[in-house]
């Protein structure tokens, strides 16, 4: 397994299975006071990365994608072990990581800049030129536990394509997939110093993001951590995905069977640990009871249990503590008047798909991101009311709407305050090439390979005076 020769200072951190608590590995912890040495290595990596041709960067990324594809089952099994995703979901994540790296290789080859038409403007007729896309330098990438392979690929792929060095700090709960990805990039030809992996807690992260040598912080995680990064980062670029609380609108003219199937998947995929997972379903009153009954019946068919079992639909949350927090949030909503339709029977880190209705608008499960297999059903009288309720939240990534009317779909797409609106699909659809990020308080910048690549590079203009004279 890839490791960086840095002062440890804080010992080893075990990595445990969320399902049974078994220790599956461990990582060396990097002390916060080792950040200077980390950055010395990163500065060497910055010089090396800048010197790599676009062909070399693309070759590394394509080569790593090929190796992961060849070893897909091993990568998927590792995701199951450390993150608790079901084997079916882990295989899908592995396939997406392959695609993310290939998309990154394509950006390295194609997105080099453009010609600038200087002579199109009076006074510049004798000039010609272009702009190139140049690396920022050193990027700090901080990744969460819920997609331990593909979200790391979304940081590393565009950064490498753009000629940057990276200091990667993966979640201490799921660092092994990240380490194996870096190992694979090195095997595919990436010079080792281009990516430096550090493992540690908040103190290490704070020291890293505040370092002047770091020119950009790319962070996926919680609001409080995002706020702390913004306060301490100083003058550097920030790209943040801080979560969501996705609404899906189901209108009376929708295909209810399709809506039920998509919303069940959207709500409970990855045990609800999904920043674009469906959390609030707003159903037009005329079909509310039919949708509710079908949704609950379909939810009851989901099997919760061992994520390595091919028959399991919903695995554990990342920890027993996370499952207990979800249980407490639901209990608070029930105490406030919500009605339980199914679920809410915790067994350690396992928390079955849980469906609520009549949830007060002041309840945390309505206002905040649950990040658990919990969904709220709400009847509404009109599209206008649905949009108003959907937009109540101060942060937003994705939304969805089910309707057979193109006019109503487009009206909703215009008015829903979200970074993406999925029509006749649940909120959790994402294609790795599309721009991905939120509105309002939920995000800063955009991911999606091309868009992350452009965030991680900077234009340089070259203008030739007297050309053609």
From TrEMBL:
Show the stretches that span the lipid bilayer: none
Record family assignment: Belongs to the aldehyde dehydrogenase family.
Give the UniProt keywords, A-Z. Oxidoreductase
The identity of this protein, by name, is Aldehyde dehydrogenase
Q: Does the keyword Oxidoreductase apply?
A: yes
Respond yes or no to whether keyword Oxidoreductase is given for this record. yes
Q: Which domain of life is it from?
A: Bacteria
Species, as recorded: Streptomyces griseoruber
Pfam families, per this entry? Answer: Aldedh (PF00171)
